[in-house]
UniProtKB/TrEMBL annotation:
Keyword Flavoprotein found: no
Organism (species): Phyllobacterium zundukense
Membrane topology recorded in Swiss-Prot or TrEMBL: Multi-pass membrane protein
Keywords of this entry: Cell membrane, Membrane, Transmembrane, Transmembrane helix
The protein, known as: ABC transporter permease
GO cellular component: plasma membrane
Length: 329
């Protein structure tokens, strides 16, 4: 019944009106305006090299943003994604240095990341803790595991075979494999989130968990598997980072969760659950990437950059709060 009602509303709403009201349209306008302004401010902005660098910089983070967006839609949040990315890197790197081939080591790293998601999902759905506290504890514990595995020393993986390095450093007809993988993940989960019945339950659970439960949706199962998905994608991103940089540092990914959450919220994912799109989240991280590139080209001190990003996040959360309040009234 709930799905039928939503489908009816979508049919009755004129397509031009839906496009005009999309948050994505506003983000595209802001990104284009920034690009135009920066084209006058710096001659180096509108260059193929700069755009390639921006795409490379947010492509791997974009994979993590996909999982975070789906988790935010269901009403959760994961503060441990940066630590999980690092954990996948150092575990896979350590196994490779111990003699395992990099493909098997990477698979184990991704599966171990999924296991972390299972543990956090257990504490959320069975024990009854909320996502914030659970993932906060997970962030500290997993970061500690990274330090234990590496003994605080970065791992140099220069002996990785060329075939594995090609995943993070190679290209196909001039297009880096990293960007191809990123777009493949985005298109897959954007399609599933819009079309697959299983992932549509994410919206129903996030919008009104009690109503979803009464309509027969096993909401705890939905929250559990979305938590696992978020950690798995973070682990996958960690393996790509390892391939790209040929190293694994135990402090990698510190503060990454700020960018990830900011991108998803800027893109329209509500902290109250029930709304958000993959496209919006990707536009959100693209906006942050454009801002970062602009600050660098304008020689803005690195000490100011985090503060500016924090202000952007605060603004996005404020907008989300007022929009949610307006819908509720």
């Amino acid at each position: 019944m709930l799905a039928d009602t939503m489908g009816t509303k979508a049919v009755r709403s004129p397509s031009w009106k839906r496009i005009g009201s999309m948050r994505e349209a506003g983000l595209i306008a802001i990104i284009l305006a920034l690009c135009v302004a920066m084209s006058f401010a710096s001659p180096h902005f509108l260059t193929l090299g700069n755009f390639r660098a921006m795409l490379m910089s947010f492509s791997v983070e974009g994979i993590v943003v996909v999982g975070m967006t789906i988790l935010l839609i269901v009403g959760g949040i994961d503060l441990a994604v940066g630590s999980v990315v690092c954990f996948a890197m150092v575990l896979s790197g350590s196994l490779f240095l111990a003699g395992l081939d990099p493909w098997s080591a990477s698979l184990i790293g991704i599966l171990a990341s999924a296991l972390i998601g299972c543990v956090m999902g257990f504490f959320v759905t069975v024990v009854g803790l909320n996502h914030f506290i659970t993932s906060l504890a997970g962030m500290v514990i997993v970061r500690g595991l990274c330090l234990i595995i590496t003994k605080g020393t970065p791992l140099s993986l220069f002996t990785l075979p060329p075939a594995f390095k090609a995943v993070g450093q190679g290209s196909f007809h001039g297009i880096p494999y990293v960007i191809i993988i990123f777009f493949a993940v985005v298109m897959l989960f954007d399609f599933l989130l819009r079309r697959a019945t299983a992932l549509r339950k994410v919206f129903y659970t996030g919008s009104n968990e009690k109503a979803a439960l009464y309509s027969g949706i096993r909401t705890n199962h939905v929250k559990f598997w979305v938590t696992v998905l978020c950690s798995t994608l973070a682990g996958f991103a960690g393996v790509i980072y390892m391939s790209r940089f040929g190293a694994a540092t135990p402090t990698f990914g510190v503060g990454m969760e700020l960018n990830i959450i900011a991108a998803a919220v800027i893109g329209g994912a509500s902290l109250n659950g029930g709304s958000g799109t993959i496209l919006g989240a990707i536009l959100g991280i693209a906006l942050l990437s454009v801002v970062t590139s602009s600050l660098v080209l304008l020689n803005v001190s690195v000490y100011w950059q985090d503060m500016i990003k924090g202000c952007i996040l605060l603004g996005a959360v404020s907008i989300d709060h007022f929009l949610h309040k307006r819908k509720a009234s």
